[in-house]
TrEMBL record:
This is Major facilitator superfamily (MFS) profile domain-containing protein. It is found in: Membrane. PROSITE patterns: MFS (PS50850). InterPro entries: MFS_dom, MFS_trans_sf. The keyword Secreted does not apply. Residues 1-87 form the Major facilitator superfamily (MFS) profile domain. It is a multi-pass membrane protein. GO terms for cellular component: membrane. Its main location: membrane. Gene3D superfamilies: MFS general substrate transporter like domains (1.20.1250.20). The chain crosses the membrane at residues 62-82.
Amino acid sequence: MIGKLGASAAFGIIYIFSAELYPTVVRNSGMGASSCCARIGGMVAPYITDLGRLVGGDFGRGLPLVVFGGASVAAGLLSLFLPETLNRNLPETIEDAIHYRKSNRRDNDKDVYINNSYQKDYIAESSAYQTKL
């Protein structure tokens, strides 16, 4: 039951997470390509389970589990190379996506601080203006 819960949660979250990976101008195409690859994986899965019959023996019984487990571990390790999106603007164009990983984390934090201080100054100025009225 815990495995089913994890699979259901991952299925619901993957669409939101995948949409963050693509720039706005190619988001629909990227999501379509991702969905296509997922469907290909669903079509190949029964053939992987039949590998056990092809090989036979104790190794054949465990081979499908090794293939599925290896694919899961490989996907987890490859996800470590995805860029961090916390407190950062998502890419809007292809050029933004190319330079997204190259941008310095400190610069982005400074931009957020500048934007927040600008907002604070704007709020202070607008409240001062309203008190004069």
